[in-house]
Description:
Blueprint: E1 29-35, E2 41-47, E3 55-57, E4 64-66, H1 84-92, H2 95-112
Antiparallel strand pairs: 1-2, 3-4
This protein binds zinc ion (ZN).
Amino acid sequence: MVGGNAIRGTRIGAAGPSSESERGETAPRSVVSYWCANGHESRLSFALDAEIPNEWDCPKCGLPGGQDVQNPPSSGRTEPFKSHLEYVKERRSDEEGEALLEEALEKLRQRRGRA
Ligand SMILES: [Zn+2]
């Protein structure tokens, strides 16, 4: 019954040099994607001078998400459901289509029960 990672503390002081991103690009913000262990992508935009957190809680399932899609900060268990469909979903990167897919996935999961 180990609680896992304790990320409740605020991490201040991670110096993020944003000088690279402010070359006068058209986008005034930096967009960061976070993936949770369930394969949900959360795309967030931060002001350039804002501190970008390493992890972000998934708004869909509440699991912590990381910036590495291959290595999300899983909460301990591996979700076997991530498969071909996840990649298709990622390639579309259409937010509405993604939402629809998420709904379908949720229904599927509910039908299957929690394995
Ligand atoms: Zn999630």
